[in-house]
Amino acid sequence: MLLSSMSARRREIAIMRAIGASPSFIFLIIQVEALLISIAGIIIALVAISMGVLFSQTYLAENYGIVINYFSMNSQMLIIVSVVLFSTFLLAMIPAISAYRMALHDSLGMMTT
Hints:
The protein is mainly alpha-helical. The chain is elongated, with a radius of gyration of 21 Å. The chain has a domain at 2-39 and 73-109. The protein has helices at 2-8, 10-18, 23-64, 75-101, 104-109.
């Protein structure tokens, strides 16, 4: 998703480069954006899981005899979240490096409409 939006954001990146943004700054903002999207997804998922367990706990116990303990963060969950964030960082390097290497004159040449 981030890679496909990069082609749409070429103009924005070119303008930032033209006003003096360094390639490392462009790399950094793309990484931060990817990590923020990932963190938002993790928070939404954890809230959804917690609410799902909370609301279905009594129904499942009464009707099917399945007892589910309340969801809580444990060391395994922290490892999974860490792996997801690390994977996000690694995979976001593809569009970030692409933007980092993007030639300024090529991007500005595309701006003529």
